[in-house]
Please model this.
Amino acid sequence: MKNILVTIPVNDGHRERIRGIAGGCRVDFVPRNEVTEAQVAEASVIIGNVPAKMIRASQRLELLQLESAGADAYIAPGLLSPATVLCNATGAYNRAVSEHAVALTLMLMKKLHLYRDAQRAALWTDCGSVSSPVGATVLVVGLGEIGLQYAAVMKAMGANVIGVKRRPGPCPAGIDQLVLTEEIDTVLPRADVVCSILPGTAATVHFYTPERFRLMKKSALFINCGRGNAVDSDVLLKALQEGEIAAAATDVTEREPLPGDHPLWRQENMVITPHVAGGYHLAHTHERIVDIACENLRRWMRGEEACNVVDFETGYRR
Amino acid sequence: MKNILVTIPVNDGHRERIRGIAGGCRVDFVPRNEVTEAQVAEASVIIGNVPAKMIRASQRLELLQLESAGADAYIAPGLLSPATVLCNATGAYNRAVSEHAVALTLMLMKKLHLYRDAQRAALWTDCGSVSSPVGATVLVVGLGEIGLQYAAVMKAMGANVIGVKRRPGPCPAGIDQLVLTEEIDTVLPRADVVCSILPGTAATVHFYTPERFRLMKKSALFINCGRGNAVDSDVLLKALQEGEIAAAATDVTEREPLPGDHPLWRQENMVITPHVAGGYHLAHTHERIVDIACENLRRWMRGEEACNVVDFETGYRR
Model:
């Protein structure tokens, strides 16, 4: 009898669905922080981000279905046996992360961070002019599903959307203009909003250089809901302090948690959320993760090819 | 020669436009706080909210074009001569106020107010589950242009929109269901978001009673970007303190400014902005006010009927 180890959060309905698919297998539901090395070693399928160090190239492991989009911790050479198929949960986070990015954009446009600060001091104070999505040029850097969903909402609110992507291709619906990543410097000076949804790859580390911040409008708003290491926190701080851009909001930082003594925390025109855009914060995300896991479990039972298979070159879905 | 007194903010382009229309008249541009009683008494047309007490039923005043949507201060019997046509700037604020309401809604949904508080303490802390516009039932109370524009964005983000209006009529495009104001209690229990854009009339004072807050879901979010006196601040505070609703955001309060010692300021699940959704905070609003004023000035020059004429019964556009 093969073992299936499930470490993602599940409710009764999820348990029933998984057991229904895995007829003839033993299914163990174990919270991630209670998993033992023995359970990992005996599993043919693992659903959930078990600690990477526990895997030890298990020969028995046929399918590792992550609950995250990022797979960085699992693609190190030798960590997984060549026989193991690694799948991620790309797609599960689209709605949650794109909405969080829209919320952060509007918060900055309407200066709601400054009004929240004023409220804490019981101050009925006018913080001055605001901006609007209508007619704004919004640069969406990284055109995966999250970027496309963010773009669609901004466009529905009246923005002119420029999409930035790595590889040439047709302009997706809802994008007014498409430019290649290598051409980004030609459009940065036109952007009222730069929203970064770049994945964490070698090519995107410190993508936003001091020169790129200088190319932006002094009134530009910078949003990061992709990977934290696309921006050096000190470079971002300097761009804000020196007025290269007007304000920024980020859900991710290069070091997480951002150290408590980092001055970015106290920069007034900086909004920080602690990597919560994704996760299990939206019920929909949880359902989508279970959906992806169930689909791959079903395929594995039938000997079919998995979906959401991770490309070890990029760390992302093939 | 007739006098035209302009007290709204104007730039060189605006001055030129107004002078271009008002050929043969004397045009004075005077900031509102520098206007004299003599200037008001001599004006045939006033563009701007001059202090009501200065008007003294001037027989000379033919057109008073306000820069606000509300005209409450100018409809008192005897204040204006029967010969004066009173016009407001309804329409100028639609974009700014509807966007502010969307921004507040997303702020509450994504708990960005709590994350801002955590940021101020340099705390990388997870504030738990969030909600999404997708599939949310959003009640839009007051279906003027602001309410309709708010509804359109929430619908584009996936919400199910119920519109609430005073008079029966066809269901406007973008509204999934229409109910009459007198029937609101039948739909309040279904709402995930209640967004109030009610005008300030006798019928809307303290519209949101304790009973109505009790009818709402405990998870409901309440937004007010209409008039402050639709909600008694103490009733709202109690609804938040007792968990009748999950959170609220308001741009308006019954007393403005909200007194510094009012506990609403310090209620964590309450977001307050100081009546800034409208005003001149968005450049677009300013242009629209000038557009309306120029249109009515043009009509007055030609002896045509004005637009945006205030109904003295309701205080709003006829």
